[in-house]
From TrEMBL, chain A:
This is C-deglycosylation enzyme beta subunit. Keywords: Carbohydrate metabolism, Lyase. It comes from Novosphingobium humi. Residues 4-113 form the C-glycoside deglycosidase beta subunit domain. Belongs to the C-glycoside deglycosidase beta subunit family. It comes from the Bacteria.
UniProtKB/TrEMBL annotation, chain B:
It comes from the Bacteria. PANTHER family: BLR5974 PROTEIN, HYDROXYPYRUVATE ISOMERASE. Residues 28-272 form the Xylose isomerase-like TIM barrel domain. InterPro entries: IolE/XylAMocC-like, Xyl_isomerase-like_sf, Xyl_isomerase-like_TIM-brl. This is TIM barrel protein. It comes from Novosphingobium humi.
Length: 134, 302
C-alpha cells in the first residue's frame, strides 16, 4: 500500500557507492488517479532544501528500469500502474547528510483530455523527509 | 409511475483513499453498505495488471460481486490521443484503445464503457478521430452487448457542438451501442470551496470549474432519449444534508419526468483528503433517495 502523500517517506535515501554518493532517490506513488503509460509523464522536477533539479536531469526508475526524459517520452508501452512505486533519481554528488530535509516534487503529467494549454500539468508534493544513512 | 432509478457508486469516489488506506475489498464493502446495486470502476485504476488481469484477480472480482450482490455498471477508460508528445493517434490506434477496453469490460461483466477521448482545443472539442475509431468497434460492442458512452462533463454543457456531434453519430449509424453519459457536475450552480489551487491561475476555465457552468436541468429533457448512464457527481453535502453545489431538488424531478430509469452512480469529487468520501457518498444516497421518494409520493397524490 502507498503512504498517502505523493512523496513517500520510505525510499528517501542516498544512492551510489558508500564513500562516493552519486545522488538521492525519492520514492513516489503514482502521480495520477489512474494508471498511465509512462510517455504521459514528462519528467519530474525536484527541489531539495531549496536546490532545484530540473526534469531534464532527473531520471525515473520503474520496475527496475531507469528512464531519462527522452526514454520516458518514448515509453508508450510501459505502464505505471496504481500501486507501483516510481523512484526519482536526483543527481546530487555526495548525496545528503542523515537528517530531515525539505523535499518538493512536481511530476509533469499529461492528460490528453485536458485542454492543450494545460499540458503538462504538474502534480505537486512537498514534505519533510528523513535520510537515515549517509 | 415514472421509472425508478437504480443506485450505484463509482470507486472513483474513493480516489483519495484507494491504494493507501483502502483496498478493493474495502471499496466493495463501503459501496454495498449504501444499499447500492451497482459498482462503477476506472479500468486503469482498479483492475490489477490492467488490461490483462490474472485469473486469480478475476476470481476475486467475481467473488466480491457475488458476496456483496453488486452488478458491474460502467467501466471508465481513456483514448489517449496524445500518447506521444507532439503527435496524435490514428483512427486505427484509437480503435485499438477502444477494443482493448471493450474486451476487458466484457470480461468483467460491464454493459457500459465510458471512453474519455483526448481533446484538441480549449473548448474541449474531442479529437476528430473519435467517430472513425468508434465506428470500427461498433460490431464488437454489439457482440458484447456493451454501450459506449462518451461523457458530457463540465465545462462542456448540453447545448454544445461536441454533444451535437455525438447525437448526429447515433442518428447516422442507427447504432444501439453508442449513447451519452451525463456527469451531473454540469448542473453545479454554486462555487466549490477550497478548490482554487486545483486550477492554474489565470486559466480561462478557472471560473467555470470553480463556480460551475449551471446548465439548466430542464435541458436534460432535450437529450434524455440519448442518455444511457448518469454519473452523480457531487462535491460536498453538509451536516444538514444539503448539497452545497448541485441543485438536486431541481435535477431529480427532471430525471423522473424524463422517465430515466438507469443508474445514478455516485461520483464524489470533493476535498482532496482521505477518510472523507466514505460518509459523503452515504449522505448523497440519502439525499437522492429522499428526493425520488418525494417525487413519487407527489405523483401518487396527484
Amino acid at each position: 500500500m502507498y503512504e498517502y502523500p505523493l512523496i513517500q517517506a520510505t525510499g528517501f535515501r542516498n544512492y551510489g557507492p558508500a564513500d562516493a554518493r552519486e545522488g538521492v532517490e525519492v520514492r513516489l506513488r503514482l502521480p495520477n488517479y489512474r494508471g498511465m503509460r509512462l510517455s504521459l509523464l514528462d519528467g519530474v522536477d525536484v527541489t531539495i532544501d531549496g536546490e532545484f533539479f530540473s526534469h531534464e536531469i532527473t531520471m525515473l526508475r520503474l520496475h527496475g528500469e531507469v528512464y531519462d526524459l527522452e526514454a520516458m517520452r518514448d515509453a508508450t508501452t510501459v505502464r505505471w500502474a496504481m500501486g507501483d512505486f516510481g523512484t526519482v533519481l536526483v543527481p546530487k554528488v555526495g548525496g545528503l547528510a542523515p537528517g530531515i530535509h525539505n523535499v518538493k516534487v512536481a511530476a509533469r503529467t499529461r492528460s490528453p483530455y485536458f485542454p492543450p494549454h494545460l499540458q503538462p500539468l504538474p502534480v505537486n508534493g512537498e514534505r519533510l523527509a528523513t535520510i537515515v544513512l549517509p | 409511475m415514472a421509472g425508478q432509478f437504480k443506485y450505484g457508486v463509482s470507486l472513483y469516489s474513493y480516489t483519495e483513499d484507494f491504494g493507501s488506506i483502502m483496498t478493493l475489498e474495502d471499496g466493495f464493502d463501503h459501496i454495498a453498505d449504501t444499499g447500492a446495486t451497482g459498482i462503477e470502476i476506472l479500468g486503469e485504476t482498479h483492475v490489477e495488471c490492467y488490461p490483462e488481469p490474472s485469473a486469480e484477480w478475476l476470481d476475486k472480482w467475481f467473488g466480491l460481486l457475488d458476496r456483496h450482490q453488486l452488478e458491474p455498471t460502467n467501466m471508465c477508460s481513456w483514448v489517449d490521443t496524445k500518447l506521444r508528445l507532439g503527435c496524435q493517434l490514428t483512427v486505427a490506434e484509437g480503435a485499438a484503445e477502444l477494443e482493448r477496453d471493450l474486451r476487458l469490460a466484457h470480461r468483467l461483466g460491464f454493459k457500459s464503457l465510458r471512453p474519455k477521448f483526448g481533446v484538441i482545443d480549449a473548448e474541449l472539442t474531442p479529437d476528430p478521430i473519435w467517430s472513425g475509431a468508434v465506428e470500427r468497434v461498433l460490431d464488437l460492442a454489439n457482440k458484447f452487448d456493451i454501450v459506449i458512452c462518451p461523457e458530457i462533463h463540465s465545462p462542456t454543457p448540453i447545448r454544445h457542438p461536441a454533444v451535437d456531434g455525438y447525437i448526429d453519430f447515433i442518428e447516422r449509424t442507427g447504432t444501439p451501442n453508442f449513447r451519452l453519459l451525463i456527469d451531473t457536475g454540469i448542473f453545479q450552480n454554486r462555487p466549490l470551496k477550497g478548490w482554487q489551487h486545483e486550477v492554474p491561475e489565470g486559466d480561462s476555465d478557472h471560473a467555470k470549474l470553480i463556480n460551475g457552468i449551471a446548465v439548466d436541468p430542464e435541458e436534460f429533457l432535450d437529450i434524455a432519449k440519448y442518455v444511457a448512464f448518469i454519473q452523480a457527481k457531487f462535491h460536498y453535502i453538509n451536516d444538514d444534508l444539503q448539497c452545497e453545489n448541485i441543485p438536486w431538488d431541481k435535477v431529480i424531478p427532471v430525471l423522473k419526468r424524463a422517465g430515466y430509469d438507469g443508474y445514478l452512480s455516485s461520483e464524489y469529487e470533493g476535498t482532496r483528503e482521505p477518510w472523507v468520501a466514505i460518509d459523503q457518498v452515504r449522505r448523497q444516497h440519502v439525499l437522492m433517495r429522499q428526493l425520488e421518494a418525494q417525487y413519487d409520493a407527489a405523483l401518487a397524490d396527484a
